[in-house]
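User: Hi! I'm working on a homework problem where we have to compare a predicted structure to a textbook description. Could you give me the structure for the chain below?
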Amino acid sequence: QRCVRATGQRTMATTRRRAAEAASAAGAGATTATAAEDMGKVYHFAPKNHASVKNNFLSGITLIPWLKIVWKWGRHMEWRTYWVRILYLTAMSIFNSFLAVIEWALYSRKYSFAKIHPKPVFVLGVQRSGTTHLHNLLAQDANFCFPTTLQAGFPSACFLLEPFTSLLSPVIDDTRPMDNVKLGFDMPMEEELATCGLSGGVSPYMPIILMKQAKAFFPYFTFKDASAADRKMWVSTFMALLHKISFRNSDGGRKPLVLKSPCHTARVQLLLDLFPEAQFIYIHRNPYEVFSSNLKLADTVFWYTYLNSPTDSQIMEFLVEQHKLLVRSYLEDRHLIPKKNLVEVAFTDLQQAPLETLERIYKHLGWDYAAAQPAFATYCGSLRDYKMNSFKPLAPELRRFVQQHWAQSFDEFGYEK
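Assistant: Happy to help. Predicted structure tokens:
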């Protein structure tokens, strides 16, 4: 009886806490929207690439998930403006479906039961905090495996397309539009791109398609407030994808997957439910630099994928609210990760002393650094001529905006305002 009462009390307390958080979030959201509208007058995102079909992460979608997106969200798409892109995605979905049927017939019995290593590694961090750099570094270790750009971009037919990646070269640029980081179909990529298409849009990446409806997709960051059906859809899609990647890359499940999608930063609890032994690396960066880099991201990459045209304030609100949700969710659930399975690093440390920072990561997580060190040294040497983006100082209004809305990032990780 005491246990029942205690459980009931905890449930009531949790309900009250969540209600208070929801009320607070609603108030904060209204404040952010108003501030974002003001900042939209300070910074302008220039519309571009309306007819482009390059660099679109839905290029590998199949017909049924694409029709699901069109059926549910088609009334919000700007058909006259983006008809070329919509026609392209429709044509690609038919082509991908044809290949997917063949690939399923040839390989499904093998990859559906492929073993996934029980200790995957998740690289966490907000967008533009250095997660890609860290992911690329870890991918140099032959003891790990990772999703490739081909597998993330064309998950339903990646095996059949492996010999023909040169024919897909028009689909992506040689470097990323926002920072000139090299792109290639054999390079590491964030697997949420695949999950978004496979699930028919059950993903927080959908705002990059339909920014005007961004708020509708926010429950897909943590899935704590998403429907049971949507959660089940994402989990089943995610796990099926990992089985397929493991079949091809993990040497019979002997190699742990290294996974990087910024939205995982908000999913610690969910990821631990799926993989209790998972290990995590969280990377953080000066919020001013993150904000400036996000502005460029939104003003370059996003215009390749939109199916409606948002206002400056809508884009600004999304960038700010996404960051706040990721950081807040991570800090709330960080205690769930055993200390031995979590290490936090600063982007500046990884940039200025990559080998020393990697050695610290490896030591904390119990990995063999000595075996991987030569590969790390070679890769770091290949980056000597790479030039990072340089940003103009933020306008005073934008600095105050970042200080106000990303205060938690400044305070938690010791960055000066």
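For your comparison, note the following. Residues 1-26 have pLDDT under 50 and may be disordered. The radius of gyration is 21 Å. Good luck with the assignment!
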